[in-house]
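Table S2 (text version). Query chain:
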Amino acid sequence: MTILDIFDPLTADDRPYKPGMPMERALAILRDMAEKEGKLDAGLVQAFTQNRCWEALD
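Corresponding structure-token output:
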């Protein structure tokens, strides 16, 4: 849930304060949060990316 809670606002088109970013940039942020910062589980971020979990939102 945390990964999606971060990913969704980053890519959302309806953000009032700035436009959503491209999916690849948002995924890079998630990877950095997992691998460099240790804030997310790297295995879960990898699973999220490989399974293209965001597509279920469309």
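Notes on Table S2: The longest helix spans residues 23-35. Helices lie at 2-11, 23-35, 42-50.
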